Amino acid sequence: MGKQKKNIENKDEFIFQKKNYRFMFIGLAFIALGFILMIGGGSDDPNVFNPEIYNWKRIRLAPALILIGFAIEVYAILLNPNKK
């Protein structure tokens, strides 16, 4: 009894394809935009209160954009572009 050789095909393919990377960059753009919207609102003088820190963009919009960006990233990872 001899050993049977298995035909192993070496495919030089990337795990992700162009469609996956496109969605990944869109997700990264959403995340970056969310963090950019959170920047600022502070005061140079620690004794002075600046109410801009409670702006609706920093409290509602920016975290929502970040969560949407993470959801897009998960979708990009799970996306199978070969499925038709």
Brief description of this entry?
The chain is an all-alpha fold and 84 residues long. The chain has helices spanning 18-38, 56-78.
List keywords for this structure.
2 helices, 84 residues, 52% helix, mainly alpha
Describe, in plain words, how this protein is organized in 3D.
This protein is mainly alpha-helical and 84 residues long. It has a domain at 27-78. It is built from two helices and no strands. It is elongated and about 65 Å long. The mean pLDDT is 86.
Query: Unreliable stretches, pLDDT < 50, 5 or more residues?
Result: none
Using only C-alpha atoms, the radius of gyration works out to: 23 Å
The helix fraction, in percent, is 40-55%
Report the average pLDDT across residues: 86
Shape: elongated
Most strands sheet: none
The helix count comes to: 2
Query: Using DSSP, what is the number of strands?
Result: 0
Cα(first) to Cα(last) distance is 43 Å
Q: How big a fraction of the residues is strand? A: under 5%
Q: What class do helices, strands and sheet pairing give?
A: mainly alpha
How would you spell out the order of helices and strands? HH
